[in-house]
Amino acid sequence: MRDELLTAIADNQLFLQYQPQMTSDGRSMASVEALVRWHHPEKGSIGPGDFTPDAEAAGVMSELGNWILRRACRDCARWPRISVAVNVSALQLRDTNFVETVVDIVREEGLAFERLELEIVESAVIEDFARASEALSRLRSLGIRIALDDFGTGFSSLTYLRRLPLDKIKIDKSFIDDLDKVQSAAIVHAVIALSRALGLKVTAEGVETEAQQRFLRSAGCHFLQGYLFSRPVEAAEIARRLAEPPPLA
Asked: One matching Pfam family, short form (predicted)?
């Protein structure tokens, strides 16, 4: 698997798709999330959930993560206005050269630091909280934004809201799926209110219906991401949509 993944990186078998993150009214694209795919010569297109665990086990997550970051920065530098969100693994965060690597890649690809957002999950900071927090603080001081992904699925998320250098949280899709249930709706409403009180932006993942959009907008959610607006698409499609005139009010 290690050799296969290294070959995939070297031979351009990997490619990125991007899922838009929209303003709550659904009219404007604020950013995109980069999602890696593997065009395997025998198995066809493979999603990240099917091979990133193998990349971690094979010890090539840093190489994979650096490839994703570089390609995402390169694509975003060609687009106007929007920012790009890139997922960061626990193994990347533990790398002693992580900050320097990120800074070098962003500068080499000509992207403004303010247009990059790094998404981390709670498990990525548990093992060495001090090191992770220090690394994220250094990146944030340059203008790179930090988002806590899959919020609500861990055990200590409120602690991290208080202690990590965050700009945004992303509410996990599992809560959005159950918005028609009183308990989930109350939790989502409370999380949005708490985040806004702390000065954090909020993105809801997995928005698939207009009813969910109405609820989240009325609750004060800043950004929405999901199939209601777009599936992940190629970089050229993002460029095409950005070139279109804005919809009429």
From this structure: EAL
